[in-house]
Amino acid sequence: MNIPSNSNPSDSMPSDNSPSDSMPSATPWAGLALLLFLAALLGFGAALDGYSHSVHPVALLGARGVPHWLGFDVLGLLAPGLLAWWALVRAGRAMERTAAGGEFGMVGRIGWTLCTLSALAFALQGLLPVDAQRGSTMASGD
After folding, report:
1. First-to-last CA distance in the chain?
2. What is the largest CA-CA distance in the chain?
3. Angle (nearest 5°) at CA 115 between 114 and 119
4. How far apart are CA 37 and CA 139, in angstroms?
5. This prediction's pTM
6. pLDDT-derived band of residue 102, with 50, 70 and 90 as boundaries?
7. Which of 54, 60, 79, 86 has a Cα-to-Cα distance from 16 of 20 to 30 A?
C-alpha cells in the first residue's frame, strides 16, 4: 500500500534558526550562581569561628560587624542573586520566542516574574546587610 506523503524529508530536520540554537541556555548562569553561593557559604562559614550551619542563619555571615561581612555580601548574596536573575532573564527571553509563553501561557509568565523578583530580592540582601550589633540588642530587649 502506497500512501502519498505531503511532508518534505527536510521538514523533520532541525532548522538553523531555531530558538535553542540562537539563544544559549540559562543553565550555566544558574549553575554558576548556585556554585558561588555554596562556595561562599561553606568558605565564610568555616572562616567564622563558632559558626554552625545548623544553628546560625545565613544572614549572620553578611551582618555588619562580623569578620569578612562585605566579602560574603558580595560573593554570597549579591553576585549569586544577580547571576540567578540573569539566568531567569535569559529563560524569559527564550519563553517569549515561543507563542505567548509556550505551553504555560499566563501562569508561566507570572511564575517567571515572581522568580525574577525573588532573585533580585536575594541580591538586595547583599546591598542591605543586617547590623549584627543592633540585631543582638533588639533580640535581648535592651
Report:
1. 90
2. 90
3. 120
4. 27
5. 0.72
6. low
7. 86
